[in-house]
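Following the same procedure, sequence and fold were stored together, as reproduced here.

>
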Amino acid sequence: MNKHTTLPNLMQKIVSDEDIQTITEAVDYHDPSRKFTVRTLIDFSLLAAVHEWKSFRHGADVAPTYQLPRFHYSTVANKAKEIPYEIMKRLFALIISKCNRKTRRSLRFPKPLRIVDSTTVTVGKNRLSWAPYHGERSGIKLHVAYSPEHQSPMDAIETTGLRHDGPVGEALTHPKQILVEDRAYFKIERIDQFAENGQLFVIRMKENVEIHRRHRLQRLVSSDSNVIADFTCQLGTKPCRSKKRHRVVIFRDARGKEIRVVTNVFDVSAEKMADMYQERWAVEVFFR
């Protein structure tokens, strides 16, 4: 499939011509055009948004390369004015209704989230003598990569209960997903390496990590935002300071507790970054 026509073809799979006809009839709108129809306007608007066309004139000039018909730029403006707002409102509602829960949730973030965490199951010492834990208990630790979109684990590794989370977590990374992890997985050398090799991450920082050369990021401040700060910096004391500058977002959770996360994801708002980390709590529900 031509890359220029992928988006309109995908849209047609979600919203068929029959769907459009049903909606236009419901609002008593008759489409007089045979060349620049409601469907054409939808395809034009979708491509214009994704490819950031500068104007109607620019869009009309490049439209034929995207398998759209040739038309004068004024045709787009006139069509947009002519079509009742109710049609677009109902089309939007239809698209949302046709997205399943997984799709609706994944649309919130640039890539799928991969929550990495662990839980320890303990039993009496004599039942698992090969897995000593603490005192008179034995323990098995389950390290899990969990998908909040699917609400199920994607990978799992079993170890004895005393095995540290950090080293095992390296086997649960995925280059096409955003890692979401707690403080147990935080290590300055590790996040520098992630930034180097392109592994996206959102990891909670340890409380005693020093912040160096802080630079505030510009953002639109909302009165109901739970974000306290959003900035880039280097992390750690001079002997072991990060080589890379990382983004740090500080926010308050539902209980008012201050949470600090470090990330190399820069194309989402600080509020959405807070949402990403708070998705991590879904794995704790799974463990229960």
The chain has two domains: 3-98, 113-287.
